[in-house]
Amino acid sequence: MLPSILEIRDRHDYYYPRRDILCERLNVAIFALNQSVEKLESFSTRFNRKFFSIPLQCATEMRELCTLIQEGLLSEIVNFEDLISQSNSVRMLQLTQFNRMAEIADLELDRGGFIAGNIYSTYRKWSQIDGSITAAPYVINERRRGLFHLRFMEIFDVPTIDIFGPISYSEEFGVPEFFEEGEEDIYGVDPNDSEEEDDRRIGDSRSASPVDTDSELDDEEEVWYLPLEEAEFDLFEMYMDIIYVVEG
């Protein structure tokens, strides 16, 4: 159903004087996506183009849409209907594709890291994403993980992108939001946590080293993690070649 002229005018009257808020949201989104794209491009060049092509394409498309919205907001005549539609496209890409890729990578690579089987399983599941399932944004340090895994997962550290979502009181009136001492921040991390706690859960920094994990594992159980720098991409490519031949 097409919006009425009154609805279009109401949206324009509401959003036009608040363009600075929308642009600030876009600045945050574009900055995070730039970080993601730069890391993915670097990983693609250094390690394996095939494996990183899927998240790189998605992150690039999201960034391009955000840039178009930003340009539209700064134009002399602003078409909010088109911009809202583009914003919805970004949001759906993030919810149904980018966040799903993060969710899959977190589950598939957490145990063992970049061994060939994990790489193949991750890539196969990424390839099967059809947009029918949504996922929340991946948050760094939301769950305790090894250092190598967290470093890799930074490529998915993009906050929720909802440019035309509800505008908060603090955004509207510039009132800062404060945290009480000891209160968890948006990442669920107590600012008073000591470095000793970080060292305890990071474990040894050597490649394929045992990583101490949280209560999900028994205290005596160890998880071995092969870092990205030593990933078995050659074996992954062999898997792909064999499957290509078998499946015709």
Give a structural overview.
The structure is a single chain. This protein is mainly alpha-helical and 248 residues long. It has one domain (5-159, 197-247). The chain has helices at 5-15, 19-46, 49-74, 80-109, 116-127, 147-153, 169-173, 195-202, 233-247, and strands at 112-113, 209-211, 223-226. Strands 1-3-2 form a three-stranded mixed beta sheet, covered by helices on one side. Residues 178-222 have low confidence and may be disordered. Residues 186-198 have a biased composition (Acidic residues).
In short:
The protein has helices at 5-15, 19-46, 49-74, 80-109, 116-127, 147-153, 169-173, 195-202, 233-247; strands at residues 112-113, 209-211, 223-226. α2 (19-46) runs antiparallel to α3, α3 packs antiparallel against α4 (80-109) and α5 crosses α9.
Morphology call? elongated
Tally of DSSP β-strands: 3
Q: Structural class, from helix and strand content? A: mainly alpha
Helix content estimate: 55-70%
Average pLDDT confidence is 82
Tell me the domain tally.
1
The main β sheet shows up as: 3 strands, mixed
Strand order of the largest sheet: 1-3-2
- The fraction of residues assigned to DSSP E strands is under 5%
The H/E string reads HHHHEHHHHEEH
* Gap from first CA to last CA: 45 Å
Q: Radius of gyration from the CA trace?
A: 21 Å
